[in-house]
Amino acid sequence: MAVRFAFYGRVSTEDNQDPEASRAWQLSRARALIGPRDGRIVMEFFDVDRSRSIPWPRRPQAAALIEELKDPSRGFDAVVIGEPHRAFYGNQYSLTFPLFEHFGVPLWVPEVGGAIDPANEAHDMIMGVFGGLSKGERNRIKLRVRAAMGAITATEGRYLGGRPPYGYELVDAGPHPNPAKAADGKRLKRLEPHPAHALVVKWIFAQFINGRGIFDIAEDLTRQGVPSPSASDPARNRHRCQIAWSKSAVRVVITNPRYTGRQVWNKQRKDEVLLDIDDVALGHTTKMRWNDRDAWIWSEHQVHQPLVTVEDFERARQILASRGHGRATHKPHHTRTRRPYVFRGVLFCGYCGRRMQGNWNNDQAYYRCRFPQEYALANKIDHPKVVYLREAEILKPLDEWLLTAFAPGRIESTIKALAAQALDPLQSAKADITKKLAACDRRLDQYRAALEAGADPAEVTKWINQVQNERARYESDLRATPSAQGLNPQDIADLLRRLGDLAQVAATADPDDKAEIYRGLGLKMTYYPQKRLVEAQVIPDPHMCKWFVSEGGLEPPCPVKGTSTSS
Question: Is the pTM of this model over 0.90?
Answer without folding.
Answer: no
